[in-house]
Write a structure and sequence with these properties.
Length: about 350
Amino acid sequence: MKYRPRLEVLRNGAFFKELTIPQDEAPQISFDADAAIKTSFSCVAVYDSDVNWLTDEVRCVAETDGAREEYGVFIITTPTENKDGTQRTAEITGYDRTYLAKLSKLETRQYFAKGTLYSNAITQLLVASGISDFIIEPSAAVLQTDREDWDTGTDRLTIINTLLAEMCYESLYADAKGIVTAKAKSEVSAENVKFTYTKDTKSILFSEFKAADDTFNVPNVFIVAVDNVDMDEPMRATAINDDVTSSVSVASRNARIVEVVQLDNIASAKHLQQYADNLMLQSKLDAEQRVFYTANEAGHGLHDVVAINCDEISGVFIETAWRCDLSMGGKMQHNVRRALWLY
């Protein structure tokens, strides 16, 4: 098997040239679903004066017997030049393309009129950030009030994620192709599993696991309220974890642990109830967390549904973070939260 990691420089979105990776060096890719900018990377490369670190991008690729697997497109943030004897190298780190929206700040107060499609407002913000390669899952949700919430100097990523939360969408992320993506939160079920890991002769799963359970302070009753003078009336939604199979439910704990969340705005009463339900479902996931390891595998994104079936661990999980070492034989670390048991 012939394997090599590659760093491809993109100029204006097109391939420009390839950076040379010194022996014993390899790209490191990290993804954290809870971070504002979710994907980051670092690597050492031979210094190349042709590269414009301010405007060029780097695409991380792993190539096995000529087959390509892409792990993201990155904006370079801190290239550090080093010289060891006759070889000049650059330590490079970067973030995915949502970083452009973090850098882009309002120069005047942002205004959106009542009735504007959320998707149109988000599109406007993405384009103003210099992001052209994006996908927004269609939605008919519209702003319920005129919006002028954000002061001069607010970064556009913060505004985008605020609007996405009001739609009950996931926060903004970039996929392995570098496409900036906004999508609705999906139902967790055994029917929408994206990756399955078992212990068999073809398995890429390693026999190494870590567990961390934190149930003491997990709420089981969620009250979400919107009290906005521009709305016709205050809105309120409640979600209760009454699942007898959940260790943190009202029934299991024989106690109501209440969390109250106050929002400034929401797309509709239906979205408000969905927001409360999502908080309740998230609290169930937070109760049981696991870490496991596999061989490197491209295509992982935001909150993928993962099924595992082996002696050490079994069930359906939500992936919340992952990390790849793209060296030959490198491992991929997966951080997951349990969603369902498999019996």
